[in-house]
Design brief:
single chain; 220 residues; mainly alpha; membrane
């Protein structure tokens, strides 16, 4: 069993180190690049680069291949149908959640990323899609589904592992009012991964979700 407690420990320690380092790295970036959008993009690229190094470290230390992390072929047609089904369900649940928040008198705080995505130029819009809807899904799914969920389901039942990994995935976005929507997305991503025994459907859902979010914020 390659995705064992050792790999899980590397995940926990590695993610903790990245999140401890990023405030200092981001501060340095903002000092050198006072233009806020440029600094934010560089900070995002840096954090994702660190996650890539973490994935490579986990693979090296545990002798894992990409196949071990879910990079396996699956039925394209079946996966595509499931991606659209889960995406619709996730967005429906999120809409209901937003309505409930509204009628309970609570408002969601507009985070820094949303502000930066608004009113983009054409080049910025393309860059946003490439970074947020292409690069990020590949990295985060390899880390959270390939490594984390892959480890957890060797010690827990399938659904327990899916929910735990989804909770961690959502919590690490540090968005209190957005915890439930990201939790629901994380459960959907975990379900796709375990159903198809492949990371590609989860990447597809993550990419589609982020693409819709980028387009929605950009045109609003």
């Amino acid at each position: 069993m390659k995705l064992n407690f050792k790999a899980l420990a590397y995940f926990v320690i590695g993610v903790a180190v990245v999140f401890l380092l990023m405030p200092f790295i981001s501060y340095s970036i903002y000092q050198f690049f006072p233009e806020i959008k440029t600094a934010y993009y560089l900070s995002m690229i840096t954090s994702n680069t660190l996650f890539v190094f973490l994935i490579m470290l986990i693979m090296f230390k545990n002798r894992l291949s990409l196949n071990d992390l879910g990079w396996r072929r699956t039925s394209f047609a079946s996966a595509l149908i499931d991606v659209f089904k889960i995406c619709f369900l996730v967005w429906l649940i999120n809409m209901i959640y937003m309505v409930l928040l509204y009628y309970s008198g609570q408002t969601t705080a507009e985070n820094e990323l949303v502000k930066l995505l608004q009113d983009p130029t054409i080049s910025m819009f393309i860059a946003n899609i490439f970074l947020i809807a292409v690069i990020v899904p590949f990295i985060e799914e390899t880390l959270f589904r390939g490594v984390l969920l892959g480890c957890l389901r060797n010690y827990f039942g399938k659904w327990t592992a899916i929910v735990i990994s989804a909770c961690i995935f959502s919590a690490l976005h540090f968005d209190l009012t957005g915890f439930i929507p990201k939790l629901v997305l994380g459960i959907g991503l975990g379900f796709l991964y375990t159903k198809h025994d492949s990371i590609y459907p989860a990447i597809g859902l993550h990419a589609l979700n982020n693409l819709l979010a980028v387009i929605g914020v950009s045109v609003s």
